[in-house]
Description:
It is built from three helices and nine strands. It has helices spanning about 30-40, 90-100, 140-145, and strands spanning about 20-25, 45, 50-55, 60-65, 80-85, 105-110, 120-125, 130-135, 150-155. It has a five-stranded mixed sheet, with helices on one face. Strands 1-4-3-2 form a four-stranded mixed sheet, covered by helices on one side. It is globular and about 50 Å long. This is Glyoxalase. InterPro entries: Cadmium-induced_rsp, Glyas_Bleomycin-R_OHBP_Dase, Glyas_Fos-R_dOase_dom, VOC_core.
Amino acid sequence: MEPLAPDATPKLIPGNDEFHISLRVADLAASTAFYTRLFGIQPKDREARYSTFIVPWLKLNLVLLVNDSGEKLDTYSLYHLGLRVPDKVAVIAAYHTALGAGTEVVKPPRSTWHGLPLHELWLRDPTGYLLEIYAEMTAADLADMPADKAATFLVPGTEPVTA
């Protein structure tokens, strides 16, 4: 993907250089293991109540916090987290890695054509948050778009069974 040209719109907070998000999780150990595999790095800090990941190539500071309130976690409000990868091959590779790690696959690798055409894979983390692994399409990919814009499954045998 080409970097976007600088926008003249003033930033709300000038000079920001990192995105920070904190997620409450049901099982800190399982979630820490999941995000360690996802990012390929160990947490910068690991305590009894939290794990902190600093992911420099994403300019991301992710904190996983234990759910010590006893309240049910709402994984519906946060629709999903997205992680762009270089290409379709990387989406397929992520699928096989996820299967090998026992990660729940919500939607197998497929090419979707409605809205922004993407190669995508949807996973669920141990707490239930959705994670979209996606790659933007090349001109060659776009040339293969079906006339009906039906999703194209990228791994044989992952297509939904129709009656």
